[in-house]
Amino acid sequence: MLKVAVLVSGGGTNLQAIMDAIDNKTIRNAEIAGVISNNAGAYALERARAKGIEARCVSPKQYDNRELFNKALLEETQKLNPDLIVLAGFLVAIPPAMVEAFPYRIINIHPSLIPSFCGKGFYGLKVHEAALARGVKVTGATVHFVDEGTDTGKIILQKPVMVEEGDTPEILQRRVMEQAEWIILPKAIDMIANGELKLG
Ligand code: GRF
User: Fold this and answer.
1) Is any atom of ligand 1 closer than 6 Å to the C-beta of 44?
2) Is 110 a catalytic residue?
3) What domains appear along the chain, each with residue ranges and CATH number?
């Protein structure tokens, strides 16, 4: 049974997709060991608690400096003894020590087809604003391993989504979530849980 720690910052729709996929067996042989957010007000924490899953906040605001926060985030994550860490809308840079502690054991969902519209400053709606500004006809989402960079790790899965006439960033974000993110993130977890993905 793969033990999964999920790190979140916002609404938690990707977390919800993972929980639903475990319930309906789209994800086999995995369980969520706990959820951690940097944001005490993240609705994702409520989603976890509603399912009886341990959910806690580790916020930079609770620490005197980033180094102490990074140390606490790694310690709290390690307490869950996870086999896999999933960044599901997590907006904080992963400490290098965490990447070293979990080589090819941290995955992230990014709301574009990497290498487009990714890297520093590309998160949430900003990604879709950039895609619309560039005029791409196809966008999508990517699941990738997390390394020391930002959105630079080895790509695991991608799924394309058509941009439609009249799309706003909000409309496009929702379509990318529904048609791509909520499908490929659970799929990647299932592949890892069942030995269908080479971790390296
Ligand atoms: C989504 O756009 C996702 O692609 C990005 O974070 C945003 C919020 O996701 N990674 P969620 O609803 O909190 O899962």
Assistant:
1) yes
2) yes
3) 2-193 (3.40.50.170)
Cα 10 to Cα 14: distance, rounded to the nearest angstrom: 10
Distance from chain centroid for Cα 128: 17
Mutate to test the pocket of ligand 1, among 181, 183, 185, 189 (most ligand atoms within 8 A of CB): 181
Q: Does residue 39's CB lie within 6 angstroms of at least one atom of ligand 1?
A: no
Taking only the tens place, the pLDDT of each residue in 20-43 is 999 999 999 999 999 999 999 999
pTM over 0.90: yes
Q: How far is the CA of 172 from the centre of ligand 1 (A)?
A: 13
Contact 82, 1 (CB under 8 A): no
CA-nearest residue for atom 4, ligand 1, is 111
Among candidates 97, 175, 93, which has minimal Cα distance to 132?
A: 175
Atom 5 in ligand 1: residue holding the nearest Cα = 89
